[in-house]
Amino acid sequence: MNILLTGGAGYIGSHTAVVLTQANHEVVLLDNFYNSHKRVLGQLQKILGKNLHCVDGDVRNTTLITKILQDCKIDAVIHFAGLKAVGESVQNPIEYYANNVQGAISLLEAMKFANVKTLLFSSSATVYGDPQYLPIDENHPTGPTNPYGKSKLHIEEMLKDLTNSDNEWKIACLRYFNPVGAHESGLIGENPAGIPNNLLPYIAQVAGGMRSDLAVFGDDYPTIDGTGIRDYIHVMDLAEGHVKALEFLEVNNGWHALNLGTGRGYSVFEVIEAFEKASARKVPYHVVSRRLGDVSECYATPQKAKVVMSWSATRSLHEMCLSAWDFQRLNSVAAP
Ligand code: NAD
Ligand code: UD1
Q1: Helix, strand or coil for residue 272?
Q2: 11, 96, 148, 299: the active-site residue
Q3: Which residues are in the NAD(P)-binding domain (predicted)?
Q4: At what angle are helices 147-165 and 102-114 packed, to 10 degrees?
Q5: What is the mean pLDDT of residues 24-50?
Q6: Of 304, 296, 301, 265, nearest in space to 131 by CA
């Protein structure tokens, strides 16, 4: 298949580009490099032994997207492009709706015009809001608590309306839990600009000596050791989930929501311990008060993905930490 990856130079997009190319698909990347670097393209070349076609542009440019869809004879689109920082979305909600929601509308208009009706959308476990029961299945009520999460849910709802209006559309909303880790080469991985918001990249930078210690956001949650529990999933497992989801859509029309997680939660202290073991480095930490908006526990049941598209995550927390550490070692630059 010819597949367009919007946001394809980003963290999850670049790993998915590797897996799709190795599965003999032709990928075209579209990215405005707002949150990624052009050097990723060189790294992808090293991994794959060939240059990927990449267009430097904005998903909100409907004319450009239409042209790519037509010129490259695109069969399916994976829509990764978007802004993803929760705190920033609370500060700048309109920027988040403008990029995420407007970006999706622009893409859908182009797809409709070019008659490309197969789409995977990068959604998030954040659409569920505060868990009402665990593990979270796809029927769990939605109720995001921040503009980022709301933008994802708005897009999911638009996509549902679209499939209701025209049954030729094939759309899967992939609700990612906590993607971490890197490609085994250490050439691509998660490389956040500035101070990392998320746990794994922060720990990696502490282990790498770029930051002095980790602030653990609360040790008074009702969990095994008092720290928050999350469903961390190896980014390569996640990338493989996209290949499976495309195969699923080949024979299934309509709108589908699918959790992509492991079904297993780990606490912050467990992740620190695993990272210390994988890196053979100490990760100094101190406990501070809870981060506003954090929940105690969040983990998926990935059962639906297993049943409908024969996909399960296979990589362990140790492998997640090892690969994140390799990427950190090979790519560390001075902390800003
Ligand atoms: P990322 O920031 O690394 O990648 C997103 C890419 O999209 C970046 O390369 C960025 O430059 C590009 N982009 C942003 N706006 C664009 C625009 N208007 N036009 C063209 N390109 C644009 O993020 P990621 O971690 O790879 O996430 C990919 C998707 O998955 C996002 O939609 C994100 O919301 C979603 N998601 C991520 C996580 C996570 O923890 N990483 C969890 C759940 C969902
Ligand atoms: C965050 C986002 C969520 C997004 C997810 C994607 C927030 C509030 N939520 O969720 O919308 O879908 O990333 O991966 O930003 N922690 C620390 N110290 C740190 C960083 C994190 O103790 O410096 C703890 C957190 O309290 C949490 C766990 O580590 O218990 C994981 O945090 P994080 O990586 O930010 O992910 P989420 O909170 O699940």
Answers
A1: helix
A2: 148
A3: 4-321
A4: 20
A5: 97
A6: 296
Structurally, how many domains does the chain consist of? 1
CB-based contacts of 115, cutoff 8 Å, min separation 6: none
Q: What is the CATH number of the domain that holds 62?
A: 3.40.50.720
Is 19 within 8 Å of 47 (Cβ atoms)?
A: no
Atom of ligand 2 lying closest to residue 228 CA = 30
The answer to whether the beta carbons of residues 207 and 275 sit under 8 Å apart is yes
Question: Exposed/middle/buried for 195, CB within 10 Å: 0-12, 13-18, 19+?
Answer: exposed
Question: What integer pLDDT is reported at residue 293 of this predicted model?
Answer: 85
In a domain, 33, yes or no: yes
DSSP code of residue 125: G
**pLDDT classification of 333: cutoffs 50, 70, 90:** low
**Which range of residues forms the domain containing residue 71?**
2-182+232-262
- In a domain, residue 302? The reply is no
Exposure string for 311-335, b = 16+ CB within 10 A, e = fewer = bebebebebbbbbbbbbbeebeeee
Residues near ligand 1 (Cβ within 6 A): 6-7, 9-13, 31-36, 58-60, 80-82, 84, 99, 103, 122, 124, 176, 179
The owner of tokens 């920033």 is: 88
What integer is the mean pLDDT of 323-333? 90
Residue ID of nearest Cα to ligand 1 atom 19: 58
Q: How do residues 157-202 score in pLDDT, each as one tens digit?
A: 999 999 999 999 999 999 999 999 999 999 999 988 889 999 999 9
Is residue 278 in a domain? no
285 is catalytic: no
What is the rounded distance in angstroms from the CA atom of residue 9 to the CA atom of residue 177?
20
Scored b (16 or more CB within 10 A) or e, 137-172 reads ebebebebebbbbbbbbbbbeebbebbeeeeebbbb
pLDDT surpasses 80 at 24: yes
Q: Does 46 reside within a domain? A: yes
* Burial of 108: CB neighbours in 10 Å, binned 0-12, 13-18, 19+: buried
d(CA 336, CA 214): 16
